[in-house]
């Protein structure tokens, strides 16, 4: 059983790394081939689309994991309002996008690219909804393939475009997203339609029929904390690079990004363990097996902390060489940032276990408050430290935020575990 779990986690991690690699390769080739100006236009449009895509269905995909983990087949009552909310929020977001482009996007090229990327906007929540469905069914091999497919598809389209066309522009670049998005929309919709018809397997639950139904307003009340968590995470995750670019310029932002991308690849490991493998089980354990939640708290903390410490030592010893091999000698200033940021690695790994536990029961809302405070700390610390200490100041701002986040999670989890221990007696 342990060997099978490790095999699944390894597959999901490798799938995440593969997806991140093709995404990174797509960005590098695009930047080199189309030039800074055109790539800036494309990146701006894509950034807007990505943020708006997170607002469609605001947290529904994550809520499904909780609902089906706790209620089994009875959670099917949320499926119809989920699809209605998806259609409603998609319509609203597309209208907002058109209004934004009319009044705030002056560059005609950028407007065209933004309109083309509407297909990508629709595909983002569909990708997440199908991913949640596959997790609920515990079809982890298909999950790894499904989540890595869009980035591979886009990379192959871009490579084909560059090698076969004598002249290309950013409209062609945006078209690469159309191809992968249509693929996701088509096959994702077919998969979700099967879910709507109850044509799916729910792991560890016998087939029963849900007799009750829920409405959209009830769904929003349940799902918004998950959506807010994603939104605050996006703010927390991106603010350093944005502020570095604002205060120090794009070159410094590039150095920081190089270091940060290496750590982001490392952080895919706890993401694969908790978000793609354990999360449905954690919700189920929280409802029916408190002993396993307590065991996860004790054992998971020890394992994640140990992996984090070993990883930090590894980065400190080999960070310089890693930067030079992967990015080249011109990015060596990033090695200082990477080595400084390695201090935060044990805190991030430990927080991954604690955050997963705090997604259960009524602890998600306190967790969101903590994430909001961490995002504010990160922004304020960056504003204070970047002008004075440069990109090293941004690294220390990130470390301060990670320590706060981990400490706050640990304090709340200790209270939660006291309640769990009472249930176990």
Task: Give a structural overview.
By secondary structure, the chain is mainly alpha-helical. The protein has 2 domains: 1-214, no CATH class; 222-425, no CATH class. Helix content is 85%, strand content 0%. The longest helix is centred in the first third of the chain and has 54 residues, at 2-55. The chain is globular and about 65 Å long. The two termini are 27 Å apart.
User: Quaternary state, please?
Assistant: single chain
Distance between the termini: 27 Å
Number of strands: 0
- Rg, rounded, reads 22 Å
**Percent helix:** over 70%
- Average pLDDT for all residues: 83
How many domains is the backbone divided into?
2
Low-confidence stretches: none
Inertia-based shape: globular
Largest sheet properties = none
Hey, roughly how much beta strand do the residues contain?
Answer: under 5%
Helix count?
15
The helix-strand sequence is HHHHHHHHHHHHHHH
Structural class: mainly alpha
Layout of helices and strands, plus pairs?
Elements: H1 2-55, H2 60-71, H3 79-104, H4 108-116, H5 118-136, H6 140-164, H7 170-196, H8 216-247, H9 250-266, H10 268-288, H11 290-327, H12 333-341, H13 345-357, H14 364-389, H15 391-424
Short structural summary:
This protein is mainly alpha-helical.
Sum up the structure in keywords.
single chain, about 425 residues, mainly alpha, 2 domains, about 0% strand
